[in-house]
Amino acid sequence: MTAIPSRLVRGTSLDYTKTLPQYPATDGWGCTLLLSGGSGSGSTLSKIGVASGASFTFSLTAGEVAALTDGNYFWEERADKGGKKYAADSGVLIVAPDLAGAAPLLTFEAKALGAIEAALTLRLGIGAAAAQDVIESYAVGIRQFDKWSTREMMDERARLARIVRNQANPGRFGPQVAVTFTGTENEGGVPWAPGV
Questions:
Q1: Which residues, other chains included, contact 9 with Cβ-Cβ below 8 Å and sequence gap of 6+?
Q2: Residue 68 burial (C-beta neighbours within 10 Å; 0-12, 13-18, 19+)
Q3: Please, what are the domains in the chain?
Q4: DSSP state at residue 186
Q5: Burial category of 185 from C-beta neighbours within 10 Å (exposed 0-12, middle 13-18, buried 19 and up)
């Protein structure tokens, strides 16, 4: 590869050789790859390029890439010589999750469906429910507190289940229904069936 890609998968290696005509390694220039970004608290990575003729070779190990968090990163190839530093090239790349051995990636709706089903399990008394899990409303002095009713929770569960099903089967309308035709001879009581 001759440039950093636009997408990098965590847990994989990256090797590329970059030629910077204005900052050739043969003229005493050095170059460092800087990465910063990601989700949550984010992460950074700094890697010194190895001179290869007039170009620079960058090698990121699978462990270094695995240490990055998922998300968008700003990258910069910074040339340096004699105390002077220049941004030679820059851009944005996406660090994607490593699907090998990763936990299933769930949408917000799938996570919410799991949470509401867990709450319904307690509400319906299937499991060790505490008193606050079963009570739908209560009053303290003049203040009234209302939780979702069981009916509202069931409706929300059905709505989320539809969304999750549609996310898993894009382009399909409704659930699949298996239909088997057995022939007219097995359809008794209809005018076209034999013997009627």
A1: 65, 95, 96, 97, 98, 99
A2: buried
A3: 7-96 (2.60.40.10), 108-167 (no CATH)
A4: G
A5: exposed
| pLDDT tens across the length of the chain (196 residues) | 999 999 999 989 999 999 999 999 999 999 999 999 988 778 999 999 999 999 999 999 999 999 999 899 999 999 999 999 999 999 999 999 888 866 677 889 999 999 999 888 887 777 665 656 667 777 888 998 888 888 899 999 999 999 998 888 877 766 667 777 776 666 666 565 555 5
| Residues belonging to the chain | 196
Q: What is the pTM of this model?
A: 0.56
Of the candidates 126, 125, 122, 150, which has an alpha carbon nearest to the alpha carbon of residue 136?
150
Closest CA to 25 of 3, 41, 49, 9: 49
Task: Give dist(CA 187, CA 160) in Å, integer.
Answer: 39
Q: How far apart are CA 92 and CA 86, in angstroms?
A: 18
Q: Cα separation of 186 and 183, whole Å? A: 6
